[in-house]
């Protein structure tokens, strides 16, 4: 396995977390401000390059019933832009309850990046068990 970067997309901030090359350890990274802007997308591409991430997982906000709303559409659009900016595969993964988990776990990292860490831990567990990703982003 190689390093995977997780992004917890938000309009103001994007939480970030990276795995180690074995997929065993997840580390929150500093959040990226204004990720929808050109400088924000460039900052994500810089993180990919600096960490050696070979894949990005973007959180897909769905309801507890599994329905998608406007936030999910925004995450899908964002994932497509990230794929073009970072030039590595990008996929979406269900991020239900990661923000709540991040609030409960606490820690020195910002809450958005702790949520990205929970997202990545869930994605890695699914990858180890052979579970398919939620869905690919629109290009």
Structure description:
It is built from 4 helices and 5 strands, in the order βββαβαβαα. The protein has 139 residues and is an alpha/beta fold. It has a 5-stranded mixed beta sheet with strand order 3-2-1-4-5, with helices on both faces. Helix 1 packs across helix 2 (70-86). It is globular. The mean pLDDT is 86.
Topology (SSEs and partners):
Blueprint: E1 4-8, E2 13-19, E3 26-33, H1 38-51, E4 55-60, H2 70-86, E5 90-94, H3 98-105, H4 111-129
Parallel strand pairs: 1-4, 4-5
Antiparallel strand pairs: 1-2, 2-3
Helix pairs in contact: 1-2, 3-4
**Straight-line N-to-C gap:** 24 Å
Q: Helix share of residues?
A: 40-55%
The largest beta-sheet arranges its strands as 3-2-1-4-5
How many alpha or pi helices?
A: 4
For the secondary structure, the number of strands is 5
Strand content: 15-25%
Order of helices and strands: EEEHEHEHH
CA gyration radius, whole angstroms: 13 Å
Shape: globular
Q: What are the segments in which pLDDT stays under 50 over at least 5 consecutive residues?
A: none
Structural class: alpha/beta
Whole-number average pLDDT? 86
Main beta-sheet annotation: 5 strands, mixed
């Amino acid at each position: 396995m190689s390093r995977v970067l997780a992004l917890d997309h938000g309009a103001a901030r994007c939480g970030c977390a990276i795995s180690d090359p074995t997929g065993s350890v997840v580390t929150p990274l500093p959040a990226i401000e204004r990720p929808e802007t050109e400088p924000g997308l460039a900052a994500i591409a810089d993180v990919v390059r600096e960490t050696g991430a070979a894949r990005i997982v973007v959180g897909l906000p769905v309801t507890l019933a599994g329905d998608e709303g406007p936030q999910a559409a925004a995450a899908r659009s964002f994932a497509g832009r990230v794929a073009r900016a970072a030039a590595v595969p990008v996929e979406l993964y269900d991020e239900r309850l990661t923000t709540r988990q991040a609030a409960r776990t606490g820690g020195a990292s910002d809450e958005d990046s702790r949520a990205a860490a929970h997202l990545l831990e869930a994605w890695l567990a699914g990858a180890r068990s052979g579970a398919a990703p939620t869905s690919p982003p629109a290009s």
